[in-house]
Amino acid sequence: MSKDRKSGSIPSMEASGDSLTEETVVVVLGASGDLAQKKTFPALFALYAQGHLPKDVHIVGYARTKMDEAEFHKRQTGHLKPPKDDEKLAKSFDEDVKGFTSISSYIAGPYDEDKGFQELNKRLEEIEDQRKSSGKTARNRVFYMALPPSVFTVVAKGLKKNCYTNDGDNRIIIEKPFGKDFESCREMMSALKAEWTENETYRIDHYLGKEMIKNLLVLRFGNVFLDAALNKNYVSNVQITFKEPFGTEGRGGYFDEFGIIRDVCQNHLMQTLSVLAMERPVSFSAEDVRDEKVKVLRCIPPIERKDLLLGQYAASGDKPGYHDDDTVPKDSVSPTFAAMVLWINNPRWEGVPFIMKAGKALNESKVEIRIQYKDVTQGIFTDISRNELVLRIQPSEAVYLKMNSKLPGFSTRAVPVELDLSYTKRFTEAKIPQAYEALILDAFKGDHSNFVRDDELDVSWKIFTPILHWIDGKDGEKPKVESYPYGSRGPEGIDEFTAKYGYKRIGNEDYQWPQTNVAASL
């Protein structure tokens, strides 16, 4: 091992493509929209404040909205959160904001006309010419499309025709959703690939930037005991759960076009599943990781109707129901809750149900992976709990293993307990970056490993398209959608649904975590 390399280093994970370290212009298209203001600009600011952006970087906002520089800077920094009760940090924050806005400018223009992109290119050349006069020659350009999918292809074409530089690197970052089904995704990807190479394209699924998803590779392949027990011989079932405690909140019309499966399952949770279930890659370099993800996705057949449970939230108390939104069609069956089972037909996972659950207007905010192991041989035990490995993606990242232990004292009873790795307890000084910060930095580094490759999209849409067409009524009939109260755990049949695939709830009403009162348990 190199003397400069610390114990535990992962060389292939540290390696990346061509990193943009010098002169770079970042163009944020859709700069006046919610996504740019709430996610893109705060992520760029955090990277700027920590010194992670390329040297001599300049940020150009582009959108149809006409506004002056002052209004743009107000929107650009409107969602930045200053530190509280620390005068020194507050002063540093204010200085960073001034520095950030000083390297940012704005230009208004249409998305579907060459003249708009030609004006944008003039602005980029003005910025780059100033650098050239000071001896700088590189002209790297990164285009971040914080845009609705309806304009993805036309903007990508306009950028390539009018704003593509031949004197540096060009990169284009695209937000989901990537189509609505297999056919529309292929059409979109074909149009994009006609203009931009795969190496220039970075398709963001922000779940791949989350700390726990990135840690999955190390947890699995850096721990012999863990990876050895992740297979059909030991695992009864796997649950991947996404829960939001709020409804569509005025976005019902937009949401109804997609539904929870397109919004969450086909992308975020499918990316989570592929990282969890894939085989060990040759290295942690981008293509090796993505090759293994595609391999495992190809082993998953299309979801069957019998393996699907759909729901829509209804009014409860002062909380409105989904159909109370005037923008939602009264006959809509677009699900706000979905539970489905996927099967991976390979030697590791054959016969193990992967239960995917996602819903809005539920009882809590949580995203987690729950791997439930098979029953202990019962001979010497009476109704002993199953083991579970739980990886909490958000909030408050944690990994804990539910196991059985003898209750201390004279008792001869086994109780479920936890081996607990909560990040806030174990890594007290850690600053975990937001997903968008991590992914934008990866794009600057030229690291594709946490971005979605075109063939991943192709295979993933094949799995979901049949049930999506059924829900959309393209087969001449629509599915039954169960109603559930706002703030509940979901449809009433959810426990029966998961039990059908072997899931058992651990413990009983007196089960407590993370501490067990011995006297109360006797």
From TrEMBL:
Domain (Glucose-6-phosphate dehydrogenase NAD-binding) ranges: 27-215
Q: Which UniProt keywords apply?
A: Carbohydrate metabolism, Glucose metabolism, NADP, Oxidoreductase
**One biological process GO term for this chain?**
glucose metabolic process
Which top class of enzyme applies to this chain? oxidoreductase
Q: Where is the Glucose-6-phosphate dehydrogenase C-terminal domain?
A: 217-503
- Please state the pathway this protein functions in, per its UniProt record: Carbohydrate degradation; pentose phosphate pathway; D-ribulose 5-phosphate from D-glucose 6-phosphate (oxidative stage): step 1/3
What is the E.C. number?
A: 1.1.1.49
Q: Which SUPFAM superfamilies match?
A: Glyceraldehyde-3-phosphate dehydrogenase-like, C-terminal domain, NAD(P)-binding Rossmann-fold domains
Provide the catalytic activity annotation.
Answer: D-glucose 6-phosphate + NADP(+) = 6-phospho-D-glucono-1,5-lactone + NADPH + H(+)
Pfam families named in the record:
G6PD_C (PF02781), G6PD_N (PF00479)
GO terms for molecular function, please? glucose-6-phosphate dehydrogenase activity; NADP binding
Check the record and name the HAMAP family matching this protein: G6PD
Q: Which GO terms describe its cellular component?
A: cytosol
- Superkingdom is Eukaryota
Name of the protein described by the UniProt record: Glucose-6-phosphate 1-dehydrogenase
The text of the family note is: Belongs to the glucose-6-phosphate dehydrogenase family.
What role does this protein play?
Catalyzes the rate-limiting step of the oxidative pentose-phosphate pathway, which represents a route for the dissimilation of carbohydrates besides glycolysis.
